[in-house]
């Protein structure tokens, strides 16, 4: 009996001792909330989730991940800011273009310099530049974001449709005017005669709700060397040369539609719609701010939920039928320097667990974690680190090689990285509104451009 009592007491003491050791550990365990834009492909999301699991196992910090569609991220984040219940870490493909510069200016973002400065050497300079924003409350520029991935402009062409129209890739002109004439006056009549179908040669994004429309229009502006701001963000739109070349860019962009060379519905397209038109083969080519169009067919080629015939069609489309190309030479014969849109994540100043949030970001940006996430997007995003850019992934096929070559040729930043008020203009999509003034309301191009300039001055002056 005595031995049983002693044993029971010993167990009780042991239990108390165990509780005394482990209770503080449990009490100290942190949980961070992470809001993230939903990936385009399952492999992208899977790579993020795998990194989160590794982070939890290494640090003991629990991550509550919530993923949302891109169109929902900004409204949800604004509501969270209004209520004061923000996530600890947040990332959306739309933050940089439409909101992040404004939030930095208003003093709402946490300075991430303490985690970014020690690893600056791993990143390509343009991606660092895009993450350094101005805080008007603190009166300083700093890392009010972390670079994660980037994208740029590409042309996607159905080679088999081009051949059906009676032409080869080598027939495509590389001079500006001849290039657009070729598609509208030669390819479109050719494909319609060959198929008997009302197919359009070009998919020209023009919808007000489409980021593709303003990203594509920027490429036309760059073809005419339109510079809206200087490096300090000061407007240059009062320069008569800027106005003259902006009119030329707008005329060329809208002429494709006016000539009946782009589907009537392209004036109301949202971001997925030029992809859908291309996949359905109702257009022969389109310009798109990633190679997501080609990558869709690559994903199909390995999708085990599809039939063998569908997988074979995906493989043929990706490897043989779809071409990833660049724009032609600019009107003056120079090579267009493409814009790069560097996608950045953030931490809000009022976040509850900023130290742990920074731990998570540092872990995510480690090479072995960020690379699978970027490559999981199948070429849709290009890396921001020097080492990942040289990964064999980017030499694996013709589409990825085209992306690699374009970025290595050098890129330029968008105006919103120099003047945050351009995020407001992008959110309004003043570019697409001007296009629609021309094609739908029959307003002269110069008048539409003058209205555009007036709005730019009103918002960003």
Give unreliable regions as ranges.
1-27
Number of helices: 21
Proportion of beta-strand residues: 5-15%
Rg, nearest Å? 26 Å
- Secondary-structure class: alpha/beta
Number of strands: 12
- Principal-axes geometry comes out as globular
Distance between the termini: 90 Å
Biggest sheet record: 6 strands, mixed
Q: Quick check: average pLDDT?
A: 93
- How helical, in percent, are the residues? 40-55%
Summed up, what is this model?
By secondary structure, the chain is α/β, with parallel strands linked by helices.
What does this structure look like?
The chain has 461 residues and is an alpha/beta fold. It is 51% helix and 13% strand. It has 21 helices and 12 strands. The strands form 3 sheets. Strands 1, 2, 3, 6, 11 and 12 form a 6-stranded mixed β-sheet that branches. Helix 2 links the parallel strand 1 and strand 2. Helix 11 crosses helix 21, helix 13 packs antiparallel against helix 14 and helix 20 runs antiparallel to helix 21. The protein is globular, with a radius of gyration of 26 Å. It starts with a helix and ends with a helix.
């Amino acid at each position: 009996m005595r031995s049983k009592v002693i044993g029971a007491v010993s167990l009780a003491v042991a239990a108390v001792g165990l509780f005394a050791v482990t209770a503080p550990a449990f009490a100290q365990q942190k949980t961070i909330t992470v809001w993230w834009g939903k990936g385009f492909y399952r492999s992208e999301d899977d790579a993020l989730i795998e990194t989160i699991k590794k982070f939890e196992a290494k640090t003991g910090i629990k991550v509550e991940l919530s993923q949302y569609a891109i169109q929902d991220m900004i409204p949800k984040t604004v509501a969270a800011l209004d209520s004061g219940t923000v996530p600890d870490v947040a990332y959306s493909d739309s933050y940089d273009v439409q909101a992040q510069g404004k939030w930095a200016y208003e003093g709402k973002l946490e300075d991430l310099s303490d985690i970014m400065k020690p690893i600056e050497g791993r990143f390509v300079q343009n991606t660092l530049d895009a993450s350094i924003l101005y805080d008007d409350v603190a009166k300083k520029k700093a890392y009010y974001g972390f670079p994660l991935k980037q994208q740029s402009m590409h042309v996607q062409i159905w080679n088999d449709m081009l051949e059906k129209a009676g032409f080869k890739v080598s027939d495509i002109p590389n001079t500006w005017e001849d290039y657009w004439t070729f598609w509208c006056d030669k390819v479109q009549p050719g494909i319609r005669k060959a198929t008997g179908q009302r197919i359009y040669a070009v998919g020209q994004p023009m919808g007000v709700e489409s980021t593709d429309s303003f990203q594509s229009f920027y490429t036309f502006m760059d073809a005419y060397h339109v510079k809206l701001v200087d490096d300090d963000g000061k407007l240059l739109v009062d320069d008569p040369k800027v106005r003259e070349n902006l009119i030329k860019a707008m005329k060329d962009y809208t002429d494709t539609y006016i000539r009946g060379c782009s589907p009537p519905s392209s004036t109301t397209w949202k971001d997925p719609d030029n992809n859908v038109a291309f996949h359905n083969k109702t257009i022969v080519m389109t310009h798109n701010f990633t190679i997501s169009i080609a990558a869709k067919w690559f994903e199909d080629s390995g999708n085990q939920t599809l039939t063998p015939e569908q997988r074979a069609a995906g493989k043929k489309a990706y490897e043989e039928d779809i071409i990833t190309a660049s724009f032609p030479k600019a009107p003056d014969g120079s090579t267009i320097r493409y814009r790069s849109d560097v996608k950045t994540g953030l931490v809000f100043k009022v976040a509850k667990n900023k130290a742990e949030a920074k731990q998570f970001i540092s872990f995510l940006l480690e090479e072995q974690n960020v690379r699978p996430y970027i490559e999981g997007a199948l070429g849709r995003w290009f890396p921001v680190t020097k080492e990942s850019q040289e990964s064999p992934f980017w030499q694996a096929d013709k589409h990825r090689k085209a992306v690699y070559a374009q970025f290595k040729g050098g890129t330029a930043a968008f105006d919103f990285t120099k003047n945050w008020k351009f995020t407001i203009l992008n959110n309004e999509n003043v570019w697409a509104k001007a296009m629609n003034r021309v094609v739908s309301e029959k307003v002269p191009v110069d008048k539409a451009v003058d209205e555009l300039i007036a709005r730019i001055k009103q918002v960003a002056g």
